[in-house]
Amino acid sequence: MADVRIEDAVQIILRQLGENPEREGLLKTPHRVARALEYLTKGYEEDPKTVINGALFTEDYSEMIVLKDLDFFSMCEHHILPFFGKANVAYIPKHRIVGISKLARLVEVFARRLQVQERMTTQIANILMDELDPLGVGVVLRAEHLCMRMRGVEKQNSIVVTSAMLGSFRTHQETRQEFMTLVNSGQVR
Ligand SMILES: [Zn+2]
């Protein structure tokens, strides 16, 4: 199976769905699907550690740094259907800070893979804890899952919220509260 290309597999799927892959509208579909899937899973080729370590600074700053409401798009590994929403990432530095744009890249590296939201949340938190050695890290993801919405499972409009709190975000209730207040401010739903 190793040498079967995504294009060939998509042709098979189209046939199994009762479609005719030779009809005009579908002729280029296997190619398009392959390119789209490659793009949506390009996070596999990126090393999250390299993303962070390229932009570390020594800094005597010890207040909470928050990246709020970052859009992310991922795909659930159970159905290969999108889940997407907002990522909120915060940390309190001890001696190292990382460029904010790299935090966004980091979320993207983990999002562009087949994922489950829970794992993505802890992966982001763990790598920041390991590489920045901060006082604490908090990550909250809010997302809607098309595998639930489109298949009519659970309530329509339901949002899945996952969080990971490490270090002072776990041990200090005020820290966690400060972060959650920021995350929830301006939240419409
Ligand atoms: Zn799913």
Topology, please?
Blueprint: H1 6-16, H2 29-40, H3 48-53, E1 56-58, E2 65-76, E3 82-92, E4 96-98, H4 100-111, E5 114-115, H5 117-132, E6 136-145, H6 146-149, E7 160-167, H7 168-171, H8 173-184
Parallel strand pairs: 2-5
Antiparallel strand pairs: 1-4, 2-3, 3-6, 6-7
The structure holds zinc ion (ZN).
Zinc ion (ZN) binds at residues 76, 78-79, 81, 145, 147.
Task: Describe this structure as you would to a colleague.
Helices cover 41% and strands 26% of the residues. It is built from eight helices and seven strands; from the N terminus they run αααββββαβαβαβαα. Helix 1 (6-16) packs across helix 2 (29-40). The protein is elongated. The model has no long low-confidence stretch (mean pLDDT 93). The structure holds zinc ion (ZN). Zinc ion binds next to loops.
For the biggest sheet, the summary is: 5 strands, mixed
Low-confidence stretches: none
Query: What count of helical segments does DSSP give?
Result: 8
Q: Tell how many strands the DSSP assignment holds.
A: 7
Strand order of the largest sheet: 5-2-3-6-7
Alpha carbon gap, first and last residue: 45 Å
Question: Which small-molecule ligands are present, each listed once?
Answer: zinc ion
Q: Tell me the radius of gyration.
A: 20 Å
> Which secondary-structure class do the elements indicate?
alpha+beta
How would you classify the quaternary structure?
A: single chain
Secondary-structure element pattern, one letter each: HHHEEEEHEHEHEHH
Mean pLDDT, to the nearest integer, reads 93
